[in-house]
Design a protein that fits this description.
Elements lengths: L5 H31 L2 E7 L6 H9 L6 E8 L4 H8 L4 E5 L8 H9 L3 H5 L5 E6 L16 E7 L6 H4 L1 H6 L2 E5 L11 H11 L5 E3 L8 H17 L10
Parallel strand pairs: 1-4, 1-5, 2-3, 2-4, 5-6, 6-7
Helix pairs in contact: 1-4, 2-9
């Protein structure tokens, strides 16, 4: 039997560290540029079909201070971008053609093509939602320039997901528990879900939502606008949102 190639393994680790390091450096730069333009950037993560696009529509209609726009990340198609544009939301598409997550170079290129002054008008700040590729694993590993990570999960996924996919839950700044309108028909164990989640992430707000009833999106939109204020005022200078 062949011996394992330990040198080759060590090289692979170094390459991954370099790739992630370069990604994080560019992501931090994208985040700085966006904040300077008074654009609060939200990396929306979650498995396929949990309701990421529906949640964006629910949140956007409840924003009171920030003008919204969206970058959609999908392996293929621009269906969600079309849906958002039909609802009057400025939206742009990134297709990864195979990759299971967005990364900072892809987002940096897309952001460079957007004139945020036209999104927010003459005054005020705006929020750029980036709907990541539907996947509960890889998007959590790659920063893309966001100021906040928003994780959408749903009662239809089952209550064991924080235990099986810890990184996304650990890194989230805001967690939406979606499709609660379906709870009476399911065996979702919310206490078990919350125990697993809180062991990983004691502080992030968790908001019960339903895109069918509208529950929760006002509270979540307000939480995002507070986070945006902290980003815009973080350095103790800069104009007020909505000024
Ligand atoms: N019952 C119910 N269905 C939902 C809810 N949110 C989304 N859906 C449905 O779930 C499916 C996937 O939603 P979508 O927003 O496209 O999910 P995405 O793939 O994560 O962007 C669609 O059929 C939606 O109508 C919800 O809160 N309750
Ligand atoms: Mg979607």
């Amino acid at each position: 039997m062949q011996e394992p190639q330990t040198n080759g393994g060590a090289r692979t680790v170094r390459v991954m560290e370099d790739v992630l390091g370069e990604n994080d450096r560019l992501a931090a730069e994208v985040g700085r540029v966006l904040a300077h333009k008074r654009v609060f950037c939200v990396n929306e993560m979650g498995g396929p079909g949990v309701g990421k696009t529906s949640a964006l529509l629910g949140l956007i209609s409840r924003l009171t201070q920030l003008s919204p726009c969206v970058i959609e990340g999908d392996i293929e198609s621009d269906l969600d971008t079309q849906t958002l544009r039909e609802r009057g939301v400025p939206a742009w598409q990134i297709n990864t053609f195979g990759a299971c997550h967005l990364d900072a170079p892809l987002v940096a290129e897309a952001v460079a093509g957007i004139d945020f002054a036209t999104v927010r008008g003459e005054a005020g700040g705006c929020v750029l939602f980036i709907e990541n590729v539907g996947n509960l694993v890889c998007p959590a590993e790659f920063s893309i320039g966001e100021h906040a990570k928003m994780l959408v999960c749903s009662v239809t996924e089952g209550s064991d997901k924080p235990y099986k996919y810890p990184l996304a839950f650990e890194k989230a700044d805001l967690i939406l528990l979606n499709k609660v309108d379906l709870e009476p028909h399911l065996d979702f164990d919310e206490a078990f879900f919350m125990r697993g989640l809180r062991a990983l992430n004691p502080d992030a707000p968790v908001v019960r939502c339903s895109s069918k009833t509208g529950e929760g999106f006002g509270e979540a939109a307000a939480a995002l606008e507070r986070m945006a204020s902290a980003v815009f005022f973080g350095a103790g200078s800069g104009p007020q949102i909505g000024e």
